[in-house]
Structure prediction request, 290 residues.
Amino acid sequence: MTELTTIRQLAERYDTLLFDSYGVLVDEAYGLTGARELIDWLESTGKSYYIVTNDASRSIPSRAGKFIEQGVPVPEHRIINSGCLIPRFFRNNNLVGAPTVVFGSPDAYEHVAEGGADILPHAQLEDADVFVLADDAGYDWRTSMNDLVTTLNRKILAGESFKLLLPNPDIIYPSGERAYSFAAAALVDMLESALVRLFGDDPAYRFTRLGKPFAPIFDEAVRRSSESGAGASFVMIGDQLETDIAGANAYGIPSAIVTTGINRLHTTQELGLLRETVRPVYLLESLSTG
Ligand SMILES: [Mg+2]
Prediction:
């Protein structure tokens, strides 16, 4: 069953609070009700917390700047986005110095450069061993994806190995009032379908995903919180069942759903009927700390 809760109760029960950004603290333009007071309260009480967001299109300083514009002053060291996980991916997979092609915004290139990759221009796609689909902006989809599937096909036939990376697993994102745009993950679905069609289902031809609902973004939150000396219990507060809640559940972290974002189930009864993988432990009706 899903239990009604408050921020204060969660802060008493858990050492570190993890918050999704969009739909919980902010929308496209503004901070949501109570978000500013919540951040002020967390900072003044010294509570351990992190913002875990899939958006890889902005660097951390740029994201922090946007938060300030939106009236929700989250310090840089509290923000974990799927882009900032890229350098660790390169180091962990011995890819420092690896010839890499990036599809994405200038901020995405920065994350990849930080990982020590040797970034090649798109014209040298054939020479790359690593392909990062960082964002939907900054390149022409049709030409780039045609070139990429052609290159991967040739590499597989030649027996060459490669790594595929998708920092942000979100298929779409809100781009205005009731308007959506396709994100890089939609292109990855297309590419993976093509490779299955050509070569069958082989894990080597799949993209590694870093953001929610996958584990790497939660690993980073756990690592940072432990480095800061906070205790080892966490709760994830989010608005999306398939990313925030499913991700936390799979990782073994209790989850709380808010009613301000994309989720349309607003009672503990409705939430309690969900299948276990996406069922939140808590329902949080407001960000109020009063
Ligand atoms: Mg959200």
